Structure formats: C-alpha cells, structure tokens
Amino acid sequence: MKPxxxxxxxxxxxxxxxxxxxxxxxxxxxxxxxxITDSRxxxxxxAFPADKVxxxxxxxxxxxxxxxxxxxxxxxxxxxxxxxKAIRAAKPAAIVGFGGYPTFPxxxxxxxxxxxxxxxxxxxxxxxxxxxxxKGARSVATSFPLQSLPADLAAxxxxxGNPLRDNVIAVCGHAYNSPExxxxxxxxVFGGSQGARVFSQVLPEALKLMAPEDRERxxxxxxxxxxxxxxxxxxxxxMGVAAQVASFFTDLPERIAAAxxxxxxxxxxxxxxxxxxxxxxxxVPLPSALDNDQGRNAEVLAEVGGAWPIxxxxxxxxxxxxxxxxLMDNPGRLVLAAQxxxxxxxxxxxxxxxxxxxxxxxxxxxxxxxxxxx
Length: 374
Description:
There is one protein chain. The chain has helices at residues 13-28, 66-90, 104-113, 128-134, 151-154, 166-169, 192-195, 197-208, 212-217, 229-239, 252-258, 268-277, 293-302, 317-328, 331-343, 349-363, 366-372; strands at 4-8, 32-37, 52-55, 94-97, 117-121, 139-142, 157-159, 185-190, 218-223, 242-246, 261-264, 281-283, 307-309. The chain has 374 residues and is an alpha/beta fold. The strands form 2 sheets. It has a 7-stranded parallel β-sheet with strand order 3-2-1-4-5-6-7, with helices on both faces. Strands 10-9-8-11-12-13 form a 6-stranded parallel β-sheet, with helices on both faces. Helix 2 (66-90) packs across helix 3 (104-113), helix 8 packs across helix 14 (317-328) and helix 12 crosses helix 15 (331-343). The longest helix is centred in the first third of the chain and has 25 residues, at 66-90. The chain is globular, with a radius of gyration of 22 Å.
C-alpha cells in the first residue's frame, strides 16, 4: 500500500480548492490523504476527499500591537503542537502546504519533525508568510512565474500551475462562442465573500447609463453578498434587465464557461480558472490584498491580452458602462482575449503537482520516514 500524504490549507476556497484537487488526484493514485486546516474550513470537512481532517489553531498577524502579537504567537504555538500530534499519528511520507498563515503551524511542525514538504504558491507574487514557510520546504510549486525571489528560493521553484477541481476540468474543453451582433450577451459577475460588494454598487448604476437596447441584450448572472441581494435584484427588475442573482453558485465553473464576459476579482484561483476555461474578463484586484498579489495575478492575463484590469479606485459607473459597451460592440476583441487567456491555462496542473509529490516521496529513504514521525 502506498504511504500517506498530508495536506495543509487555510480555510478559504482559494487555498482549499487546489488542495482538494490534489487530494482527489493522490487518492486516485492510491495514496492515503489527511488534511490539516483551521476552524474556518469546518464546513468543507465532509466534502473534502481525505481520510481524516484535523483542525488546529491558527492566526494572522494583523498589527504590530505587542498584545496582539503575543496573542497571535500563542495561537500559532498551540497550533504547532496540535499539528505535531496529528503528524505523529498519521506518519505521512510528505506534507504539501497551500500557503498563508493558517498553514504555518503544520508546515513548521513538519520541519521540526523532519517530514519533507512542498509549498504551493498560488499567486504571481510570493507573500511574506509563504517566504518564511518556503525556507523549510524541499520544493516550491508555482502557478505563475515568480519575480524577485531570493536565489535559495528560486532554486526550489517548480512551475506546476494551480490545481483545478474536477468540475473546472470538466468544462475546460468548451469552446468560446462569441456573442452575435444584437443578440444576448451573457455577463457573469462575482467577487467572493470580501469582494462582491463593489460590483453590487457599481454595476446597476453603470447599466442605468447604457442605452435601453444595450441593456435588453444583457443576461446577467451575479454573485452578491446576502445583505446586498434584494437591492441588486430590485435594481435589475426596475430596469427590465434579465438577471439571476444569488449569494453563492455551486456550479460557478459552468457559469464561467457559459459567459461571454466575466467581471471578477483576480484571486489566483479565479485567474487560473479563467485561463484554463478560456474566457475574457474585466478584473478588479482587491485593493486590500497583501503584497498586491491580486494586482500581479491580473497582470499575468493582461500582459498577453486575455483580460482588462481596472483598479477599484477607477471603477465608477461611467467607466464600467463605457467598457461594457465597447466589448459588447466588438465581439472580435472578446474572441482574441478568450484565445489569449486559454493559452495561459494549465489544466494538467494537478497531475504535475501530484508527480512532484511522488518524486519527493520516492526520494526520501524509508528509514528517514519512520524516524521523522517516531
């Protein structure tokens, strides 16, 4: 029987979804899989393909206040002890981390116990937490080419792409069908739990500035925060715009594939899915993102002509109405952008990361594996 692999990821979709994809691939290859995460991911536990899910304490450095720093250090210390206990019990051959402060306790625990590890960096720029974690990892798997890495980390970097879930892979072969002149224009808008509000505020106002014949073409699917849902629905209903508004879509990859244009934030998972499926997008990086990771992610597609980034401070109704009108009237631009985005896609990323994991497991002597967790 093949050995066990332990995965660790923070409790948000951006971290958990690629971990979920790798877990499924490793299990198909015959490995046992366990997950270490934080309490935010508890709602994912039943769906995550793992033999066991361990919840450990974790925290993020929010300020330089001494009291806050001490509290964070205590939580991270307790989380490390909890992670060490889970690792000793599971005796994994390797651990794969998906970045962020919630993965610090498990990755640090693995380093203390001598368990070899891989760190996956989803974004186009490596954040501060991951720079610390990467020092103890054998390899750093990347989704995009990383810039300004120290020589020691650059030597560990292996480009795999960002693992995609099965429901994303299932729609990757769907060809882009450009909108017909004067026909329905399918617009998908989403922003995640933190980023959806600005779209709920700006898009309805932008549509009010458009000509009635342009509004009549629009078929909108929009994800909003629950507290904004009624107001957004009412605004579209008043304008006679065909719209489906919800706080969550379980079939988002299928919605992306059906869209003529996507308006969204530019988290790593979103950008990688847009590229793999091959859809043009207006990307609005989350301004509060640390290290401007979303801004750099957006640039990856913008540099090849696959997306049009707009800074949030520049996203007013007039600008958005203008951009929408331009793209609706020029389907050829959308086709070229779809092709450019698709050329950046990495639909086989999960296989590459699984291969890298197997290589790591194969390079560790059996005696070392036993000693590390004893």
